Amino acid sequence: MSILVTGGTGALGFHILSSLNGTCELFSFSDEQPQPWQKVDGVEYLTGNLLNFKEVLEMMQAVQPTHIYHLASQSSVGLSYKKPYETLNINLLGTQTLLEAARQVVPRAKIMLLSSSEIYGRTEQQLTYLHKETDLPNPLTPYATSKACMELLGNQFRNAHGLHIVFVRPFHFTGPHHSRRFAIPSITYQLVKIKYYGAEPVVYSGSLDISRDVVDVRDVARGMIQILDTAPSGEVYNICCGKSYTFRELVEMLVDIAGVSVDFRFDPIFERTNDIPLLIGDPTKIMSIGWKPMITIEDSLTDLFNEMVVRRRTELKMGYGKDLRL
To answer: Minimal CA–CA distance to 104: which of 54, 168, 50, 30?
Structure first.
């Protein structure tokens, strides 16, 4: 068995590869080599351009994967407003490149496409509404649109070529190794600098009043492995817990974990138009196959904070005096 994870240097890729380590041949395909805190021993890290069909085809021929987790994407909602063409290009045409290479080289491979709860958009129904997999997409952002289109593309390859493709729609997740490009890890990093490096005791953020269904990234990775191993082609699964937290609640937990006193300031650079005030998923389907969240949000945030401390120390040892975005 040979497993390929595109975007394997991200948090989800890290935890999928960590979970599978020692069970089979493992390959990651990304546009850059991993930093030390992104690397899993025993994994062969390959680099290339997902939009270059020749490179992807040659990689597929070399790896001959039996299972493919396609995670590589432009995954920032905020950045998708600034770079809509790049977002659509990577998330849609990059998937086209990958699926066509798989069709030619490994047509019987099991493939998972990483979608997003963002495709559900806003609902006019009551605030406690839990989004089901049968809900129609209602995207509000370039990122959400790119993921909704990616699902259509995946179904095209299923229907026209018989590829085995399943889809997952994770809701918000966080935890150790999560990139600082995202809100909760960004705030965690600010708290690490305040506690250990004498930074001004001020946390800058966007709106803290939005609510999200939050699951630990390790639970998401575990669910994805289970789904790809067992689900029939064409199935779609939410990965969520059915409970929401405001970002303010999450940040207050992080402040308690850090043991510091801080002020909060709104920074317009983090503001997003069309932000969805509340997004909660219905976990009934994924729980019916035996999955459930195992890691509490408190443990998730504690592990994120502690890993961020180690990550920053590693950066400084490597000579990264300035902040990285990873």
So the answer is: 54
* Same domain membership, residue 192 and residue 111: no
Range of the domain at 159: 2-173+213-239
Q: Is the dihedral of CA 102, 114, 148, 30 positive or negative?
A: negative
- What's the domain count of the chain? 2
Q: Which two tokens stand for residue 119?
A: 């495709």
Rounded mean pLDDT of 202-218? 93
Q: 51 and 90 in contact (C-beta within 8 Å)?
A: yes
The whole-angstrom separation of Cα 154 and Cα 13 is: 20
Q: What is the mean pLDDT of residues 39-54?
A: 97
Q: Ramachandran region of residue 325, left (φ > 0), alpha (ψ -120 to 50) or beta?
A: alpha
Do 263 and 135 fall within a single domain?
no
Give the rounded percent of residues in the chain with a pLDDT score beyond 70: 96
Question: Do 66 and 3 form a contact (C-beta atoms < 8 A)?
Answer: yes
**What is the tens place of the pLDDT at every residue in 101-129?**
999 999 999 999 999 999 999 876 656 78
Task: Identify the CA nearest to 155 among candidates 121, 110, 113, 94.
Answer: 113
In a domain, 41, yes or no: yes
Mark 144-172 as b/e (b = at least 16 C-beta within 10 Å).
Answer: bbbbbbbbebbbebbeeeebbbbbbbbbb
Rounded to 10 deg, the angle between the 247-258 and 183-197 helix axes is: 20
Predicted confidence (pLDDT) at residue 279 exceeds the cutoff of 90: yes
CATH code for the domain of 254: 3.90.25.10
Q: Report if residue 218 sits inside a domain.
A: yes
Residue type, 317: K
Same domain, 99 and 203: no
Indicate the residue type of 247: F
3-state class of 4 per DSSP?
strand
pTM assigned to the model: 0.95
